[in-house]
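The instructor's notes for this session suggest beginning with a concrete chain rather than abstract definitions. Hand out the sequence below and ask the class to guess, before any prediction is shown, which regions might be ordered.
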Amino acid sequence: MTKRLKHFYESQQLDKDLIFHFFEEADKMSEKDYEDDLLKGEILATLFCEPSARTKFSPTMTSFKSAMLKLGGNVITEETIKELSSAFEAGSIEDTIMVVGKYSDCAIIKHYEEGTVKRAAEIAEIPLINAGDGRGQNPTQALTDIYTINNEIGRLENLKVILVGDLANGREVRSLSYLLAKLPQNKLTFVSPDNLKMKDDVKGYLRENKIEFEEHSDLNKILPEADVIYMTRIQKERMPSEDYERAKGKYVINESNFSLIRKDARILHPLPRVDEIQLPFHVIRYNPKVAIFNQVENGLYIRMALLKHLIGE
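After discussion, reveal the predicted structure:
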């Protein structure tokens, strides 16, 4: 029997059976003639609690809104809560979640502080979904990523995956590392500036699950070995300016090293991107080695499947 989730706040909650259950549901929802009013009358609350220029357009939050509407439900949105009120400040998260639970059937939370959604889930009366918590995780993006990898590569085991960029602050790479550890014989290679290396909690989890990993400084040398190259931006907003200047532009995919990537390998990126993929737009859009926009589309189907699981089943 498939495990059921009450909330989804970190990748470690998933097991292999549940991962593939979401894949099956997402496959159904990706069909062109798919129609479902399963969540008709249900309300999804999206809570933006991380003030940032990028928060105004978040692929994760936008896809959740679209997913809810496609399933016949409704969406209410509270943007930049931290800027507008004292909600989610110390001591008030419980009150806020209880109030939101009286007006909605599920809540998506994007928060500036790691661990907040997990903490809120302890008292929430409605399902909560983590859309990104500080330097913590973005688990629905990771589920989208491995769904994309499975669709593009045809397997989730015995993969060589390179994770590139801001590994200290990137919640997407953290979530993806935790998920890849659920599947056997995968090998992860971390490539980052010296000041932005992957944290010890993720490395420890990989060791516990006997997942091979290494840190490497020469991206071009290892590109030909990769099945998946997962690029991320340097998160300027999460570091002093001098650290950003040390890290920016150090690792990029451009026209000179693009040819090193095998034809059957795939480049992924959680978006938004800055300068870490320096390829002409027609290459990004049409070359099969770049799966970014397939990844974006897959996020819709995965999040539809997740909403069905948490609200509709």
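Then share the key points. The first helix runs from residue 16 to 29. The domain at 11-138+298-312 is CATH 3.40.50.1370 (Rossmann fold).
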